[in-house]
Amino acid sequence: MGDDQVSFVLTGFGPFRGVADNPTTTLVGSFAGCLTGKSVDEHGNAGGTVCRLSSEMKQIAPHVIKAVVFETSAKHVKSEINRLIGEIAQASVTGPQHVVLLHLGVNYKGLKFQIERCAYNDASFRIPDEDGFQPKRECVLDASRENISWGGKLSTTLNVDSLRRELANTGGFGDDVAVSGDPGRFVCNYTYCYSLDKAQLVNSTRSCGEFHGNDISSSQSVPDLGSVPTLHSLFLHVPPFETQGEDRQLEFVVKLIKAIRKQLSAV
After folding, report:
1. Is the Cβ–Cβ distance between 36 and 94 less than 8 Å?
2. Where are the annotated coiled coils located (predicted)?
3. The dihedral of CA 17, 18, 20, 21: what is its sign?
């Protein structure tokens, strides 16, 4: 399969308590600038014309079909993921065979790029999100997902160890990239858990030949099963720009996208 059959939805976050300037807003905004000619601010609104990617990096931009900044809010994240996956599920038969939901979040105490292996069905926010929501020991997924209990683990379908090796060696990032098994329990984990579950749901209903529109979003009609791509979800924690500069972080995201495309193209 050619790598033109692998596309990406890139997401980041706006500010939250203690992090007024979220680097993922800037990173996602750079891709949005290449897609639309407009940057996005911390609220996901269009700003001035900008495309900060180098000419080499622009080669990857056409494979990013959407670049969206989420409000750091559990409610907003659920709504946006439902909307995005609903739109992907309506893709035509000429669309990509694989779509990767690549979520970026900041570890404001981090020193490295952390590729997250898994997420947990555990919403235990240490601080309120931007809507003032602060759950403790609650499930991310609703009760209808009976096979995933509180605290249960969901893992990405991508080979994260292979991605780390590719980025450390060929990508030139060495010890600055690591695989993590703990995305925290704040909105980053909430996003990853919900995204992994929705991707798994789409893939399982597609494979068994039964797709119900309300499994994803009540506003979506039932698509032709042959048109629905295989979905994957991955979360990347980035450090602050003070630790790893903006240009280096953009380079990392681009090389991660290239490594994922290479991996899925071999499927």
Report:
1. no
2. none
3. negative
| Token pair of 165 as six digits | 């090796």
Q: At what angle do helices 187-207 and 74-89 cross, to 10 degrees?
A: 30
Q: What residue numbers bound the domain in which 178 lies?
A: 3-265
The closest alpha carbon to 110, from 249, 9, 234, 15, belongs to: 249
Predicted pLDDT of residue 53? 60
The pair of three-digit structure tokens given for residue 81, joined into one six-digit string: 């993921």
Task: Check: CB of residue 230 under 8 Å from CB of residue 97.
Answer: yes
Q: State the chain's mean pLDDT as an integer.
A: 84
Domain count, the chain: 1
Residue type, 25: T
Confidence class for position 88, pLDDT limits 50, 70, 90 = confident
3-state secondary structure of 91: coil
CA distances from 51 to 47, 55, 79, 145, 258 (A): 12, 10, 28, 41, 19
CATH of the domain at 57: 3.40.630.20
